[in-house]
Amino acid sequence: MRRKAIITGVGHYAPEKVLSNKDLERMVDTNDEWIVSRTGIRERRILEEGKGSSYMGYQALKMILEEKDIDPEEIDLIIVATVTPDTMFPSTACRIQHMIGASNAWGFDLNGACTGYIYALATGAQFIESGAHKKVAVIGADKMSAIVDYTDRSTCVLFGDAAGAVLLEPSEEADYGILDWILHCDGSGGEYLHMLGGGSLYPASHETVDKKMHYIYQDGRTVFKFAVTKMADVSAEIVEKNNLTGNEIKFFIPHQANLRIIDAAARRMGLDDSQVVVNIDRYGNTTAATIPLALSEVYHDQKLQRGDYIVMAAFGAGFTWGSLLLRWAI
Ligand code: COA
Predict the structure, then answer these.
(1) Cα of 113 to ligand 1 centre, how many Å?
(2) Helices and strands (H, E) in the chain, number of each type
(3) Which has fewest Cβ within 10 Å: 24, 54, 250, 271?
(4) 156 catalytic, yes or no?
(5) pLDDT (tens digit per residue) in 209-237
């Protein structure tokens, strides 16, 4: 019988330092009312200097291992979804492997931007389903404050820092765990949301620094237009494809980029507010971390029961977008 990948542990980490809308009012020409009404964001967390995404990913994974009393040496594979790796290389996965003491694991980073966590969960599940591995850690970690221009009001209000993680393990029950996913990318959208500097095309130079090419650039209006349709389409599609209805979904856990995009997807799926997990007000857009962070909060609030259907969905730079259906198994 085909094995399924089930989530057996969930963890997260958010830095203590809070950057509120009021704080931002003192930094750029913006105001709390504009930010809340356009995005739903009230505050976000900022990681201190001298620490990178690996620190937050490590903390999220440590939470799982401590709660489940698992020896790090049991981990086979560490996948880290991130657009803010500590360094170009070595990978953030290698750093976390070393920090946590996962001496039998291999690992790699994966860049699917804001859809990165769904890409990573679908990837991690393959190593479980194939029988290759028994314990796969899937981490989403982003220190967005490292690539945000805090003089650009159109982007600096949107992003924050955090990490989340799950542990995937095999189950013989065919109807539980990661049941299905739909993933897309369309590189023609690259011009609307990117960070150009620091890679092989535009290596770091005085010019790339002067032109602010090491910061996020976003054409918000165009990205919004694509995100609002693509995320709603792919969320509704995975529910229909699996012969489910909105009523049967316990929680919709969307990428937290903008409350209006989340609401549009939830409406398309016919969900009411109690089914939609929203924490964008407290964390903003933490890129690859939004979905596991939200899942971990729901899990630790003891709102999940065995048998619950969960739909995740995201849209991000690339463009990338996708959805994933899972059935809670523990
Ligand atoms: N405070 C006050 N005014 C601001 C502002 C801020 N922080 N940022 C932009 N504005 C202004 C603009 O300058 C513009 O003024 P103008 O009309 O005089 O030119 C006005 O507000 C409207 O800007 P616009 O960009 O059209 O706003 P919007 O309603 O599209 O909201 C976003 C902007 C970024 C919130 C929205 O476009 C968005 O969420 N985009 C998608 C983000 C996303 O999903 N990213 C994908 C995944 S990472």
Answers:
(1) 20
(2) 11, 13
(3) 250
(4) no
(5) 999 999 999 999 999 999 999 999 999 99
